[in-house]
UniProtKB/TrEMBL annotation:
<keyword id="KW-0677">Repeat</keyword>
<keyword id="KW-1133">Transmembrane helix</keyword>
<dbReference type="Pfam" id="PF12796">
    <property type="entry name" value="Ank_2"/>
</dbReference>
<feature type="transmembrane region" description="Helical">
    <location>
        <begin position="663"/>
        <end position="689"/>
    </location>
</feature>
<keyword id="KW-0472">Membrane</keyword>
<dbReference type="InterPro" id="IPR036770">
    <property type="entry name" value="Ankyrin_rpt-contain_sf"/>
</dbReference>
<keyword id="KW-0812">Transmembrane</keyword>
<feature type="transmembrane region" description="Helical">
    <location>
        <begin position="701"/>
        <end position="724"/>
    </location>
</feature>
<dbReference type="Pfam" id="PF13962">
    <property type="entry name" value="PGG"/>
</dbReference>
<dbReference type="GO" id="GO:0005886">
    <property type="term" value="C:plasma membrane"/>
</dbReference>
<dbReference type="InterPro" id="IPR002110">
    <property type="entry name" value="Ankyrin_rpt"/>
</dbReference>
<keyword id="KW-0040">ANK repeat</keyword>
<dbReference type="InterPro" id="IPR026961">
    <property type="entry name" value="PGG_dom"/>
</dbReference>
<feature type="domain" description="PGG">
    <location>
        <begin position="620"/>
        <end position="722"/>
    </location>
</feature>
<protein>
    <recommendedName>
        <fullName>PGG domain-containing protein</fullName>
    </recommendedName>
</protein>
<feature type="transmembrane region" description="Helical">
    <location>
        <begin position="624"/>
        <end position="643"/>
    </location>
</feature>
Length: 756
């Protein structure tokens, strides 16, 4: 048979082409139907293809027309894949019960008993040792499984796959109760093994009450079995979280042997040291609490009857390998209803003799009702005497108030009222509860702690810095509102929130620095002489740096103890990172711009508004300087034509022109007038320049204007001296006073420059 004809035959099987099948059956020899499909690398025969395509009529016609030996061969033939499946495997996977019946009917018409085991395709196993029954059960195809199982029930029920999984366990796991009941009620032996040491009873809650009841009745030994990890049936049932199997279990006849077995079962621990109550405490669902109550009540009854022979620690008092009792596990899982029930069993023993602090665990996991129950059941003096009841040794010795952020305000108030000495009690690292509250950012707890004991800020003066570093604005606001004189504290510590603040968004920084108290601190220096701007640049916080640079009145010229200004740091980081240079350019700041008399704040950058009305804005500075310069120019110009001693009426020359003091007067007056004119020129020029050049021209205008003032002063001194030269005492007195005033003015100017 040629390849194209084989291809057409398999295509007909895929699409159910009955006409082509009849034609092929009539014209082609039987052996031609054994050829494997050429389209998929030769993996499947024609029956495989038809089964996978669910072509029932095609299969019926094919199986009826081919001779029995050929049909047996095609149905039994396994594909050439990594799975090694035959046609019945594929039919079970697809879950079409009619096709399964069709394939099995081929063998029902013949004497099955005469077939050898190797000739029965329903007993064939795939690459993983699974029969067609396993495959049907894996897909929860119960009808198909029943059909397959009916062919060879005794053999099939004893066949396990490579993992050791029996059909019974798979039927229970996949919720196929009819298959499970049929196996459990049969007269012959069957396998109950499972993968990883599981038993069918472990998975009974997935099935029906009938299956569970049969397993308990016929296989009570499964109750005592544990897998390689020590997990028993109770561990598994509790994890599944269904109540009815426990009722069935406890309906068993209560003999002494059964009671002892049940006590052992409830106290049994897996490799992690967890008994079934630990598991119940870890898993929260609607029925878990009822399961735990049922088990505890049954244990108490059994223990009371057997107490003469059994002495052991109650399962709710047992600790696992981590030192956790079921109570601790319930608190950690926030399974508060179960925790309250366990506390009602034996509160004092559970709280007093826990390796770990139950109260701390309840607080840290927000179990408020459990906290209240413990606080109201044990007196304060007991808590004070036994520090282990309020401290967690595993967490650096924190007390319950360190963890109070996790509970409600009402619970926190109750803790402070009952355990007030803990407000100022540090952990092993020296951190106070208010430090932890600040770090977490719980504003309401900070408020409660400060109201309970205002001196708590004295014990932890830097507590507010944690809130700043973590960007908890509400917590910072709580410190500012409820801390006694927070502003004074910051100045005493030489530290402010602005030195530590860390937000993510520009808007948050703007809102923060707009707070009146914070705005006052924008130029405060810390113990190292650094301003908030120094710190922002040093931390490479480009967002906060931009906010500070565009905030009114932030001074960039203050030097730290290393002699560096914020501008110096800004220049360094701009040289290293182009993003910073782009930021400066975007907001109109040139850090390399050096001025003498004008401090480089936002108001000097031409961004001040009319509403701000600051005299430091370039426009107003320009106006002020121009008035002074014009006045000096007018005075010196007029003085040049109103000479001391007057003019000679005959020649028109100055009468005192030969005197040295007069010559000095003329030179000083000319110098003062020229300087004033240059200042006016600079100011006019600054009006048409960019911000940087404008600021520089105004700054240089101040320098030149100072020269004009000195010249005017000198002109006045020499003019008076020239005019009063005939009275020796008076001229020298005037000269001395003028010089004294001049030196005083110069000294103040130098001091101002030094500060800048």
């Amino acid at each position: 048979m040629e390849g194209d004809e084989t291809l057409l035959l398999h295509i007909a099987a895929r699409y159910g082409d009955m006409d082509y099948l009849r034609q092929a059956l009539a014209t082609q020899p039987t052996e031609d139907f054994f050829t494997l499909s050429p389209t998929d690398g030769g993996h499947y025969n024609i029956v495989h293809v038809a089964v996978l395509a669910l072509q029932e009529e095609f299969l019926r016609e094919l199986l009826n027309k081919l001779p029995p030996w050929a049909v047996h061969f095609l149905v039994s033939q396994q594909d050439i894949t990594e799975y090694s499946l035959n046609a019945i495997h594929y039919a079970a996977l697809r879950g079409d019960v009619e096709i399964v019946k069709l394939l099995l009917d081929v063998y029902r018409t013949s004497a099955v008993a005469e077939l050898k085991l190797g000739e029965r395709p329903w007993l064939a196993v795939d690459a993983k040792g699974r029969t067609a029954l396993h495959r049907a059960l894996e897909q929860a195809k119960e009808e198909c499984a029943l059909e397959i199982m009916g062919m060879d029930m005794e053999v099939l029920c004893n066949m396990v796959d490579d993992k050791g999984t029996s059909p019974l366990l798979e039927a229970v796991r996949r919720k196929c109760p009819r298959v499970a009941v049929k196996i459990l009620t049969c007269d012959h032996a069957y396998s109950t093994s499972g993968d990883d040491g599981l038993t069918p009873l472990d998975l009974a809650p997935n099935s029906t009450e009938e299956v569970c009841r049969l397993l308990l009745k016929k296989h009570p030994e499964m109750l005592k079995k544990a897998d390689k990890y020590g997990i028993t049936v109770l561990h598994v049932w509790v994890r599944i979280g269904v109540l009815w199997p426990f009722h069935l279990l406890l309906e068993q006849e209560s003999t002494s042997a059964w009671r002892k077995d049940f006590i052992d079962l409830l106290c049994a621990t897996e490799v992690g040291g967890n008994n079934p109550l630990h598991v119940a405490a870890s898993i929260y669902n609607e029925e878990t609490i009822q399961i735990a109550k049922l088990l505890v009540e049954a244990y108490v009854k059994a223990y009371e009857k057997e107490k003469g022979e059994i002495v052991r620690l109650s399962p709710w008092m047992r600790e696992n390998s981590n030192g956790d009792t079921p109570l601790m596990k319930a608190l950690i899982s926030r399974h508060e209803e179960l925790a309250l029930y366990l506390l009602s069993l034996d509160l004092e023993s559970l709280v007093y003799y826990e390796t770990k602090c139950a109260l701390y665990c309840a607080v840290s996991h927000g179990c408020d009702q459990a906290v209240e129950k413990m606080l109201t059941s044990i007196d304060s003096e007991t808590f004070k005497r036994r520090s282990g009841l309020v401290k967690n040794s595993d967490n650096h010795g924190e007390n319950v108030l360190h963890a109070a952020s996790n509970c409600t305000e009402r619970t926190a108030l109750l803790l402070m009222d009952r355990l007030p000495w803990l407000v100022n009690e540090p952990d092993d690292n020296g951190k106070m509860p208010i430090d932890t509250a600040s770090e977490v950012g719980t504003a309401w707890l900070i408020e409660l702690l400060l109201k309970k004991d205002p001196s708590s800020i004295t014990s932890a003066p830097y507590a507010w810095t944690y809130a700043c570093k973590n960007g908890h604005l509400a917590a910072i606001d709580a410190f500012m509102k409820h801390c006694p004189d927070f502003r004074k504290l910051c100045f005493e510590l030489s530290d402010t929130p602005l030195h530590h603040i860390k937000f993510r968004a520009y808007r948050e920084y703007k809102e923060f620095i707009a707070m009146p108290m914070i705005e006052e601190m924008k130029n405060v220096v810390d113990s190292e002489g650094a301003t908030p701007l120094h710190r922002a640049i040093a931390c490479k916080d480009i967002i906060f740096t931009e906010v500070l640079l565009t905030t009114d009145g932030v001074d960039r010229s203050i030097k730290d103890k290393k002699g560096k200004t914020a501008t110096d740091l800004l220049i360094e980081i701009c040289d290293q990172d182009g993003e910073w240079g782009g930021m400066c350019k975007r907001i109109g700041i040139n850090p390399r711009l050096k001025t003498t008399y004008i401090r480089p704040t936002k108001l000097n950058l031409g961004r001040a508004t009319a509403q701000q009305g600051s005299a430091s804005s370039p426009g107003e500075m320009r106006s002020t300087l121009s008035v002074v310069a014009a006045l000096l120019a007018t005075l010196t110009f007029a003085a040049g034509f109103t000479l001391p001693g007057g003019f000679n009426s005959d020649t028109g020359n100055a009468i005192l022109s030969k005197k040295a003091s007069f010559i000095v007067f003329i030179l000083a007056d000319t110098y003062a007038m020229c300087c004033a004119m240059i200042v006016l020129f600079c100011l006019i020029w600054s009006m048409v320049c960019d911000n940087d050049k404008s600021l520089l021209l105004i700054d240089r205008g101040v320098v030149i204007l100072m020269q004009s003032l000195y010249g005017t002063l000198l002109a006045f001194m020499t003019g008076v001296y020239t005019y009063l030269t005939s009275r020796c005492g008076l001229p020298f007195l005037c000269l001395s006073c003028a010089l004294l005033w001049g030196f005083r003015l110069i000294g103040r100017s130098c001091t101002s420059c030094s500060i800048n």
